[in-house]
Specification:
The chain has 1 helix and 7 strands, in the order βββββββα. With 112 residues, the protein is of the alpha+beta class. The strands form 2 sheets. Strands 1, 4, 5, 6 and 7 form a 5-stranded antiparallel sheet that branches. A two-stranded antiparallel sheet has the order 2-3.
Length: 112
C-alpha cells in the first residue's frame, strides 16, 4: 500500500506503507525543509492498493476526516482532503467540532 497526492506530485509509489502485525499498516511522511508537515492542509490524498493477483487500484482512506465530491468535469469519485489547519486558523468552532467528532466516533456506545 502507498500514499500519494498533492504533497508528492501524485507519485504513486514514492511513499510506501509498512505492513505490521494484525492487519495494521504504518507510514511516516518526513517533514518538509522548514520542519512542517509536508502534507499541507486541504491537499488531496489517495491510497494505492495492490490486490492479491497483483492488480493496482486507488482507494480513499477509510479514516479520512474530510472528503468532498470532485468538480463535475472530473467524474464521481470523491476526494480525500487532508484536514490539518494551522493553529492560527483553528477557531472555537473547529475545536468543538473535533471534540464532538472524537466523542461520537470513539466513545458513543451503540443502542442496538
Amino acid at each position: 500500500m502507498w500514499l500519494y497526492g498533492d504533497f508528492n506530485d501524485w507519485n504513486k509509489f514514492s511513499h510506501p506503507f509498512r505492513k505490521l502485525e494484525f492487519g495494521k499498516w504504518r507510514i511516516v511522511v518526513p517533514k518538509d525543509g522548514d520542519g512542517r508537515c509536508s502534507v499541507k492542509h486541504l491537499s488531496k490524498l489517495k491510497l494505492v492498493m495492490k490486490g492479491p493477483s497483483g492488480e493496482i487500484f486507488d482507494r480513499l482512506d477509510p479514516w479520512a476526516t474530510y472528503v468532498l465530491p470532485p468538480p463535475e468535469h472530473e467524474g464521481y469519485t470523491y476526494n480525500h482532503h487532508f484536514w490539518n489547519p494551522p493553529n492560527e486558523k483553528v477557531t472555537n468552532v473547529t475545536v468543538q467540532w473535533r471534540q464532538t467528532f472524537i466523542k461520537t466516533r470513539f466513545f458513543t456506545k451503540s443502542k442496538a
